Amino acid sequence: MSVATLDQTDRIGVAQPLKLLLCGFLVLLAATAFYFDFPFALSGHVGTYIGLLVAAFLALVLDIPFKTALPKILFTAFVALAVAIGVWGGQLLDPDMAEIAFKIAALLASFALLAGGVWNAPFRNFMSKLASLPMMLIVLLAFVGSTIWTMAFSLTNARQFPVWHYVGFDQYVFLMSNERWVKSLQNMTIYAVCFVTISFLLGFLIAVMMDQKIRLEGVFRTIYLYPFALSFIVTGHVWAWIMTPAYGLEHSIRQLGWTSFNFDWLTNLNYSIYAVVIAGLWQGTGLVMALMLAGLRGVDDEVWKAAKIDGISKWRTYLQIILPMMRPVLITTLVIVASGAVRVFDLVLALTQGGPGISSQVPAMYVLEKEFNGNLAGGFAASTMMLGMTCIVLVPWVYVEFIRGKGQR
Amino acid sequence: MSISTTTSSNEPSGPKPKQMFAPGRMLVYAVLIVTSIYWLLPLYVMLITSFKNLDEIRDGNVFIPGSHFSFDSWDRAWNHICTGLNCNGISPGFWNSVIITVPSVIVSIAVASVSGYSLANWPFRFGELFFTILIVGSFIPYQVMLYPVVLLTASLHIFGTLYAVILVHTIFGLPILTLLFRNYFASLPPELFKAARVDGAGFWRIFGQVMAPMSIPIFTVAVILQVTGIWNDYLFGVVFAGKTNYPMTVQLNNIFTSTMGVKEYNVEMAATLLTGLVPLAIYFFSGKYFVRGIAAGAVKG
Prior knowledge:
The complex is a heterodimer of chains A (409) and B (301).
Chain A: H1 2-8, H2 16-35, H3 44-61, H4 69-91, H5 95-118, H6 126-131, H7 133-153, H8 170-176, H9 179-210, H10 217-225, H11 232-243, H12 249-255, H13 272-297, H14 301-309, H15 314-325, H16 327-342, H17 346-351, H18 363-371, H19 376-408
Chain B: H1 23-51, H2 54-59, H3 72-79, H4 91-121, H5 127-137, H6 142-155, H7 162-187, H8 190-198, H9 203-214, H10 216-232, H11 235-240, H12 248-258, H13 265-285, H14 287-298
């Protein structure tokens, strides 16, 4: 990109006062890490974690790979010391002492940055870095930091408060023997498989139909897509109403004369998760359709002409030529839809509340219930497993999109 | 559409547009119409149920409109139905949602547009790495990050307040919005940016006077994306907002879980419809931008 080349020549000379200002800012950050007022005993863990993240963050912003040796040594030393003290503090029984240790660790971590950063900062595109500060902090604290934190604390036996007491994989062992969790996993798998399969088939079918140069295309698209604008809570309650046996579909069909008609999925132990699938499909298929339609429209006209010349029928062209060409769209859609299926929550909450019994429980519900009812570590372990399931979908995609793709460019 | 102009209606001569009646075409329209009915059914049921009275609901058919027509249940849903402990309807939830949505949209778009602009036009070391983490991170289930973010807001003393919800929506809206803005700014001709640099404009001046004015469409897309997203949110509202600030979705759910005695299905449906009304209105009035917003999520970063 031409913008990137611009960057090379774009060293903005930063005045000394600005440098000083940055130093002041760093000290301020270190101080915040130190004096953070934590709500829980031993939450100095959070301090360490914030300190380390701030350290890592500043290291990145200030363009560390160092050019000279001294900052490099200082940086490494400070970080190592911070981690060591943090770990040591975790072993202390006296919470006050431990907290102090953690705060010292946090402070050292921040110093590491001072040591490493300022002496080496090229200050290139400085304002850009400053403006991206919120974004970078969010990435480090909310996305990377929080994920690591949750994974780490899933190895403890924390209950009401996030106290560090390492117990290894006990929580996971317990989870796998927990009937409700196993049921949640099964349900999530059923939901994901059914939802992905049906929404892809239906979405592709409708997208192909929409691609036939039909009249009123806009109207149809509006109809298929409007549920996607609605909240899962709204979706859940509407479908709950329609599927209520006593008043909804079952009642209405029976009233019309078919008295043996049965549709009690909502209240049936074996089928309640399929009721969730029905509502989910109504909400999400429009999205799949829209993405596939965009993919279909992106196919070059020449392909169609070539297929026509070769005398290949329309439907075979769609299935054997167009569909393979749409692979990137299909993969992206799959990732979006499947990762959405892993975190399905509001829909089940509104539709069945996980019932009847535990028959339509999903992992996300389990996590929230544990975390906010005094079994923190159990919730963390469950959510880490959710993350694992997302990774099953995500890792191949990241590999294709970001790693292998980069090499090809 | 250019397609519809091929069949001219006022000219009887020439070949008949036989396409319309070919069996293949009929099948296409049949599939589209049948599926459309499935998609429209819930909206229709919601609407007619909210106008029925309870007797008609008990005895009648869920798909057939009642004979009597009144806005009573809408009035009850808005002003009187119990949402948890309070019984003054869903209107407080509506206003809470407005109070949450407006600042959240503004803050999240401000942060994301500047980040996208930085990434696209002022690249810096590891900027792309942050961006990649952000995009991958957007697929991580919220439940994984929820509790640490609770701790974070608690240590900032904003847990259970409006600020916490604003912060959380800014955090979790950031990936998609940054992607949206970064890709848009990167697609603008680089000559514009260079010209502004040559003229001596700095980071903020280029953003404010060159980039932002050219980006009204993408800002519109972002606003629509965020307004519907934040309005429809349940999880963050129930965890971070605190009892006095519960948004409309949470209060709607409370109506269903807390109703004692006789269940007023018509009022519940009216409340459901009211909750869906804002995003629906946005969707119907801004169809193209809405579609563009969701399509942006699927476009590779």
